[in-house]
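Final paragraph of the annual report: two paired records, presented back to back.
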Amino acid sequence: MKFRKLMLGALSALMITAGFTACDDDDWDAIKEGSAIEMAQTRAFILNEGSYNGNNAGITYFDWATDNVYSSDLYLAQNKRQLGDVGQDIITEDGDIYVILSNSKLIVKLNSVGVEKARMSVSSDLGDPRYVVEKDGYLYVTCYGGFIAKYKASDLSYVSKVTVGQNPEYIIEEDGKLYCTNSGWGADNRVAIVDVKSFSTASFQEVMSNPDRIIEVAGHIYVQGYGAIYDYPWGELKNGKYTELGNASNWCAYGDMLYLVNSVTDWSTYTTTNTFYSYNAKTGSLNNSSFLKNAPSELATSSVYGMTTNPKNGDIYIMTSDYVNNGNIYHFKNDGTFVTKFASTGISPRKIVFLN
């Protein structure tokens, strides 16, 4: 016990923000997991994209039960080196964390406290890695060379690839099939569909021009893109047909609900206006009223860079960026009630994953 007290005293200089909730579960301990700092069991990790060629992508840790933030780059603190650039995607599976660094062409595997377990360089023949999904012990990564690449989640070793289309972006798995958007930077308008078991060839479904995001909500698949005139259309992909439902530049989901924002910028004044609304995937009903309550006024005109829900309780986190300074996180309860705002401690926060 005396040793522990001395150790925590020596490490306290690393903690910029005080007040973290200690873990009450004797079966889990951050220090035993290899952490250099004490961490709550209710922990969340923000992937900060950083700036292109800046080698300043990073991960911010906060306690999602209290919103207390460790105000330094967690990856740097745990691993004594920079993560890379740019931070493109982050997922968690079976207690491990997987991060995609697009410009650095890396897949990085971390344990549940952010200590690196493995990293893999993505072959230049595949192109820059973009987004990742896990299924049955394998990672499926979209790569800008026109492929979905398959890796073993255990050690990140490369397995094989499937050709899908130009500049594939977001990817999901649903009912044994992989779905990824082919943006083509405006030259493609298809979603590629690949059977996970055979992982050999892709079929295609046309959607909007320059598709980007894809998400599954309550068994329904929705696609969002830039569109031919950058008006951010989105709609449902069902029975081989795409049906447009609205306009949105970002989204997140919990249960049956899809939460959306449509950001419109007047480039003559560089003024952005955000419209928040929701869609019930189960009933197919659109609610044009904002799902947010008592939101800070600046959120109406800030650049929304990411939206994430906590799968533990449905709380909503909206991330903003000015692409130069550290971004901000706006935390709302699942019913839309504003909780708090805190800094992401990194440039352009993109996505949050949650563990407990």
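The closing record of the year follows.
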Amino acid sequence: MGRDLLDDPAAIRLFRTRLLDWYRDNKRDLVWRDSDNPYHIWVAEIMLQQTRVDQMGGYFERFIKTFPTVRDLAAASEDQVLKVWEGLGYYARARNLHKAAKQLVELRGGRLPDTRAELEQLPGIGSYTAAAVSSIAFDRDHPVLDGNVARVLCRVLRLEEDPRKASTKTRLISAGEKLLAPGQAGDFNQAMMELGARVCTPMQPQCAGCPLHTLCRAYAELEDPTALPVKAPKKERPHYQVAAGLIWRKGKLLIAQRPSEGLLGGLWEFPGGKQESGESLEECLVREIREELGIAIAVEEYLTCVDHGYSHFSITLHAFKAQYVSGTPQAIECAAWRWVGPDQLSSYAFPRADRRIIEYLGQNALQL
């Protein structure tokens, strides 16, 4: 695994020098990058777990403006946190940030711990995020290993193994420890991530402009460096048909809150669920509303549909106009329910698919 580089102190020093020089000249101006506030760095790293830098837009600034300190975040309700997070997806990140903030206030006076081991004890922080926060915020000498870093290392070292395997990750972390610039871990780790994001990209890497190309075995030895990292065969994602009801009673809509744990936990939605074999979408909606909320409805008309993909499956969400018929709503398979006016929908955090239904209603000025 790239023995020439890892066993050559001069080559390692050259690797560090070229990488850090390139980073200082080419790093992007990101609002959290030069921050000396560990809270800001923590929030940014949590957002970056499942979101690219160019997708974060104003989310980070809005979050910090709303919750300037750990104490402010801890004092907020989960609904408030999810509403500010709305649109970023992977909402477990927001819930874990909120839980961790409460722990920090209760146990540490609102201060973030500065060691990787202590950081890993907080909700939502795994080994990668702990290494990133401890190195960037507190100058701890820990290498990081995200997808970008793994790609750089696999190509430089010509590691022809699946980087998602535990044994391969162990070898990559060991390599990172050898290459890491002591005392400059924050810049080194950010440089590796930046190089992978902007130069050593999955497709069409800019090898000629890479500061490490003379040290890279994939560039020197392979006809196509994009053959690395080794890619496991993609699994086919299942697709589901889902029915959702815009259920009316006396000028108000019924919305339901998803259980706090699990996919989209804590978000509000138009109630409904997955279509089962042999039933129509209308029958699906009637059944799901009965099972979820314990009420009877009358489905009136089809409104629109939305296609949406998640990490392991995709859906087509079909929206129907419906009327409440009988029964008292109960939180049977949801966390809570509410009757709200159409003008109140913007106050609640909805999944992206449901938000698109709300946008459709507004654009078509439907008098429901």
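Residues 142 and 337 are 46 Å apart (CA to CA). This concludes the annual technical report; the extension proposal builds directly on these records.
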